[in-house]
Design a protein that fits this description.
alpha+beta; Alpha-Beta Plaits; four-stranded antiparallel sheet; 6 helices; Ribosomal_uS10_dom
Length: about 170
């Protein structure tokens, strides 16, 4: 037990369920420690919103962005993701005959916030809950690498050129 306390005293940060707690550091002056917040901070969070109506989703993203700024929460970035096309089929009763066919587009937006205090996050979540329009879903997740990768649309021409170069290079070796 004493060994764990010694390790915690010498470490700069203690992580507990993705919440960063600040502790003493032996190599920094005391006045720097006094300036730090004693309230735990969350790391980077992504507020992901999804909906079928483009103008409503754009407006709601703006509301979230302004709400976070008014609460003095650091909005790091905000971006749109490529839409998804859904093909919905309805069938006639008790048959396999298609009655109607619908094409839907699902639009997605993300607002990224950083260093949110543990006292501000519940207030932000509650405000987002009360202002969420009908047909829009909201997810708040920890940021991961794959969220950055999915925001870019691959260039098909570039990919085909790279593939042809690889094929050409492998044919020369044979």
């Amino acid at each position: 037990m004493n060994q764990i306390r010694r390790i915690c005293q010498h470490s700069k940060y203690i992580y507990l369920n993705s919440v960063r707690l600040y502790s003493r550091d032996l190599y920094e002056p005391d006045y720097l420690e006094a300036m730090k917040s004693k309230i735990p901070l969350y790391d980077t969070l992504n507020i992901q919103i999804k909906g079928y109506d483009y103008p409503v989703l754009e407006s709601f993203q703006k509301i979230i962005h302004n709400l976070a700024k008014n609460m003095d929460i650091n909005v790091e970035d905000a971006w749109a993701l490529p839409h998804q096309d859904l093909n919905i089929l309805t069938y006639k009763p008790k048959s396999e005959i298609v009655d109607n066919q619908y094409g839907l587009k699902v639009f997605r937006r993300t607002v990224q916030v950083t260093d949110v205090s543990s006292t501000q996050l519940p207030l932000l979540i509650r405000a987002i809950e009360t202002t969420t329009p009908a047909g829009v879903t909201v997810n708040i997740v920890n940021h991961a690498e794959h969220y950055d990768e999915e925001r870019y649309i691959p260039d098909k021409e570039l990919l085909t050129l790279k593939q042809s170069l690889e094929d050409h290079g492998s044919s020369k070796k044979k």
